[in-house]
Amino acid sequence: MFVSDKPLSLDALSRILKIDHGEVERLVEEVQEELARESRGLDLVKTPEGYELRVKPEYREAVMGLAPFADLSNGMLRTLALVILKQPIKQSTIVKVQGNKVYGYVKALAEKGLIEAKKHGRTKLLTTSPDFERYFGKSSEEMKKLIEEKLKESK
C-alpha cells in the first residue's frame, strides 16, 4: 500500500497477498488498530476506491512540502479549486473553462472521495465531500480562503 499510487481494494490486496478476503480484512483491521494505538505518523484509511496509507492529520503540515498533493495532477487541482470556490457548481460550467478533460478529472476526484458529483439534468452538480477535509486536513471553507488569498497575491 505504501508504494501504490492509488487505494487498493480488498480484491487487489487478496490477489497481491495470495490470501482470501477474510484474511485480508483481518490483516487490515490489525494494521489499523496498530497504527491507531501506536504513536505512528500514518493511518490506514478506507476510501471509496479501497484502502490507502495516509499521513495522520496532525503530521500533514510538517511533511506537506515534501510532496504536496503528488497524486493529483494539475488539471485535477484546477478542477478541485473551481469546485471549492464555486460549489455547488455544474460540471458543464467547468468544462466550458477547462475543456473536455474535466470529465476525467471529475471522475478521478470522485473516485478519490474528494468531491461528490450528483446528477443535475444533463450535467452533474459538484461539491466537496466529507472526505475532503480528512484528505487535506482543512475544511473546504479554509481552503477557499487560502485559494482566494493566493489569487489576490498573483494579481
Description:
By secondary structure, the chain is an alpha+beta fold. The chain folds into two domains: 10-63, Winged helix-like DNA-binding domain superfamily/Winged helix DNA-binding domain (Arc Repressor Mutant, subunit A, Orthogonal Bundle); 74-153, Arc Repressor Mutant, subunit A, CATH 1.10.10. It has eight helices and five strands. The chain has helices spanning 10-17, 21-37, 57-63, 74-86, 91-98, 102-111, 130-136, 140-153, and strands at 42-46, 51-55, 89-90, 115-120, 123-128. It has a three-stranded antiparallel beta sheet with strand order 3-5-4. Strands 1-2 form a two-stranded antiparallel sheet. α1 (10-17) crosses α2 (21-37) and α4 (74-86) crosses α6. It is globular, with a radius of gyration of 17 Å. The model has no long low-confidence stretch (mean pLDDT 87).
